[in-house]
Amino acid sequence: MNTIKIDFSKTVGIIKPLHGVNNAARKTDYGPLLPEFVSLRPPFSRLHDTAGVCGGGHYVDVANIFPEFGADENEESSYDFLLTDRYVLPLCEAGIEPFFRFGTTIEHEPKKYRIFPPESFEKWASVCEHVVRHYNEGWASGYRLGIRYWEIWNEPDGIAPDVEPYGPPNWLGTAEDYYRLYAVTARKIKSAHPDVFVGGYSSCYILGGFRNGHWEEGETLFFDGFLEYITAPDTRAPLDFFSWHCYLSPDNLGKLRRESGFVDGRLARYGLSGAKRFNTEWNVCICDRDVPDRRYEYYVNFRNEKGGACVLAALIEMQGCGIDAAMYYDSQLWLEYGGLFDVPSLDPTPAYHALRYFSELYEAGNECETTRPEGVYALAAAGEDRRRVFVLCNPTGKPIDVQTELVGADHTFDAFIVDSKLPERFFAKVKSGDVLTLPPFSQVIARCGIITRNP
Prior knowledge:
By secondary structure, the chain is an alpha/beta fold. It contains 10 helices and 19 strands. A 9-stranded mixed β-sheet has the order 17-16-19-14-13-12-1-15-18, covered by helices on one side.
């Protein structure tokens, strides 16, 4: 019998803010955030590939905010903040912290428009500094939002040629071009705004990458070159956080530990162990059929019980890794990777529930000691208000019987389940010693000492 032991009397740390997202769920470009998205309470909304409902490209990107690079970056009239303001402000009002990416939206097409190095790195850095000033110091009829995290560019290390037949979709400069852009921009922002956090480089694949036009698998030279550049005496630059992306498959959730361990080791080698480690893009890509178009299967499974169970399993796996925060890609309604809501019904998907369940653990606060068998995922948390909550997850295609051993919680838990029989429904009254059968691709949340959350 598979036994899951949870000791609520022993805390082993805190639940980390791993249930962040990329972007926001809005029905229209100017409408409010979906109430269900707000009730998800993601700690961060990373602003990358940010678009209007019908694909409008006027948000967030440096070239959208500062559309004429030849203009004077010190003049307020050179900037167009309107649509980005209307995207950022509702997030802040909902208590969701924007995680601002400087750079540009990905370009998969055969013609590239905005992924070249800027004509002047110094001027580009000055533009970014003015954007920080607008949102945090009120410049240009701006705000005082206290946005803390500013990420410099996205995936400059490229993507393997078999995935991107038209070449790197995010950066067409050399590796050294990016290193310099990062260093110039990070120094500029930190010198003017010492209380914010700057970082990068949101690596596409930390164990492989392009460097000067050549793709290499393994311990990529791009990462070492970046760390060497920003720690060298003549080119030193701050790195408050290092970010990378980790797209997963159900049979390779261990990739999270492998990559985070690699990042930890490299940061330590260069004296940067104090930098936070952020997984700023992730999802679980499932193709379990022999079909010519794997991506279509990804899009279907992002929204069903297979994707939901694997999302919760990945969140639990990240809790045990050297990852300080993470952002699911993506929460936009009309994006192929937007797996949190069905369209056009806007019903929450199993992936939505996975993030919502993790949000409850996060709000409880303290991670409790948990022992689980191979193939079953479990995580538990306790709050100061005597709330106790735990989640179970079966990301496999077979039912699994588990016996619960609950220590430090005398009450009966109310358990709810999400699986192929949507929507969420009551599952069982659970007390220590009970045997539960977890259906294939299921996720269960069990609570005691807490009433269902208010929106």
